[in-house]
Amino acid sequence: MAASPLRLGPEKLFEMPAVLGRLSRYQSTSQAFAEVLRLPKQQLRKLLYPLQEVERYLVPDGRQDLHLRIFNPSLEDIARAESVFKATERNRIDYVSSAIRKDHAPDLPRPEGHTKKMNFFKVGKHFTVVDMPGYGYRAPEDFADMVETYLKERSNLRRTFLLVDSVVGIQKTDNIAIEMCEEFALPYVIVLTKIDKSSKGHLLKQVLEIQKYVNTKTQGCFPQLFAVSTVTFSGIHLLRCFIANVTGNLDLTN
Known about the structure:
Oligomer: single chain
Domain EngB-type G: 72-249
Family: Belongs to the TRAFAC class TrmE-Era-EngA-EngB-Septin-like GTPase superfamily. EngB GTPase family.
Low-confidence stretches: 1-15, 104-115
GO cellular component, one term: mitochondrion
Protein name: GTP-binding protein 8
Number of strands: 6
Keywords: GTP-binding, Magnesium, Metal-binding, Nucleotide-binding
Order of helices and strands: HHHHHEEEHEHEHEH
Strand order of the largest sheet: 1-2-3
Strand content: 5-15%
Distance between the termini: 13 Å
Largest sheet: 3 strands, antiparallel
Radius of gyration: 19 Å
Structural class: alpha/beta
Mean pLDDT: 80
Number of helices: 9
């Protein structure tokens, strides 16, 4: 029988000894994530659920516009998802190739700096992540032929992730990508990056503005925003869990 999921709650966060004991059954739980679970409660919440952490600064009536728990995995779900991204001898995570067009994927050295090509990363036998060139003034000249064609014609594309700088919010160049996803009827997600560079007040302001944009001006965007920092690693575990779920590699325990 599956154990009941362990979740954040307003009255009690986690009973950590019980959590660690139950998660010990998952041999794939990495040592690094086991150390994460030993963090103090407030630090753990900030790391795993950064937007739920800033949500508490809103008055109750203001929280209804945010959709922070549509995807609300348990700690056990997050732990199981970590195994998908853990590089082992049997679960290799490799840079595979670069491609200028969908039908052109030679083996090339990994490019440095700003992405000019589509770069393919194979995550074990689970799925392939495609890192695509950014849009806007630094986009390659063949952006439309390269990226738009791929997004429009790739039948097994599970989800598109649009990275938005949380410091400046949605810009004109972001609108281009959003309109493209809407036009092609692609399921997509907005990921807010660099959340370590903003104060709680500024981040909350940006989150509310972007959430309003998603609620009122999009149809194909997943309602819940994901916020991450590659510096503090905040939000990364939750985003990984979401990716594992939408690619069919994780069934949630709820």
